[in-house]
Design goal:
8 strands; 36% helix; alpha+beta; eight-stranded mixed sheet; disordered C terminus; L-fuculose-1-phosphate Aldolase
Length: 226
């Protein structure tokens, strides 16, 4: 089966996306791009994530042609391919309808640096793209235009899109953006959230470059630097 590993990962992460509440029912979609073949594996349209099997995942090229698969691909396949075409490092895209991110999408309001973890998106602000009908090429174009250097973007009156160098990173970013949206919403419910400065966020994003496990040959950070 073509891109079997990628198909299996999409099934696995689809279940995670559903069980974590990032999307309800059959909403949202996931893809993985294989740069070697130039093909994208994407979740099928209208099948529940706990019912999806690896053979249900559809293989497409970046021009929207079905290469392998018996199912209809996600209606948002253009939304996925536009990220792979315009962000060379992207190898996975996650689209969710998570509650708090979608709330701000419905308000057409960006996510701001109310917590430093937004730096994982590679930007101090996660913008909101102009509205367009779901599944349309216009939606895809609006999303990539608004996204800029960010790895995440809200879709007006719709939801969230994230991308990353692998599916785990793209999914983790979607989880963190939902956390940011919830903190921003809760802060606004009490008062006016304090937004971290651009200078601080530049520092945070620089620190993120060496966050986590690094190779034994990489320079070590001083103790207590976090």
């Amino acid at each position: 089966m073509l891109l079997q590993k990628e198909r299996e990962m999409i099934v696995e992460y689809g279940k995670k996306m559903s069980s974590s509440g990032l999307s309800k029912g059959t909403s949202g979609n996931i893809s993985i791009f294989d740069a070697e073949t130039g093909y994208m594996a994407i979740s099928p349209s209208g099948i529940g994530y706990f019912e999806t099997m690896p053979e249900d995942v559809v293989i497409m090229d970046l021009e929207g042609n079905i290469i392998d698969g018996i199912r209809k691909p996600s209606s948002e396949h253009d939304l996925h391919t536009v990220f792979y075409k315009n962000k060379p490092d992207a190898r996975a895209v996650v689209h969710t309808h998570s509650n708090f991110c979608t709330t701000f999408a419905c308000l057409n309001m960006p996510l701001q640096a109310v917590h430093y973890v937004i730096g994982g998106a590679g930007a101090a602000t996660v913008p909101c793209a102009e509205y367009a009908t779901f599944g349309s090429r216009e939606l895809a174009e609006n999303a990539i235009k608004a996204c800029g250097k960010s790895k995440a973007v809200l879709l007006a009156n719709h939801g969230l899109v994230t991308c990353g160098p692998n599916l785990g990173k793209a999914f983790g970013l979607a989880v963190n953006m939902e956390f940011i949206a919830e903190m921003q919403w809760r802060g606004m419910a009490v008062g006016k959230p304090v937004v971290l400065s651009d200078e601080e966020m530049d520092h945070v994003m620089d620190e993120f470059k060496s966050y986590g496990q690094v190779s034994k040959d990489a320079p070590k950070k001083e103790a207590g630097s976090y």
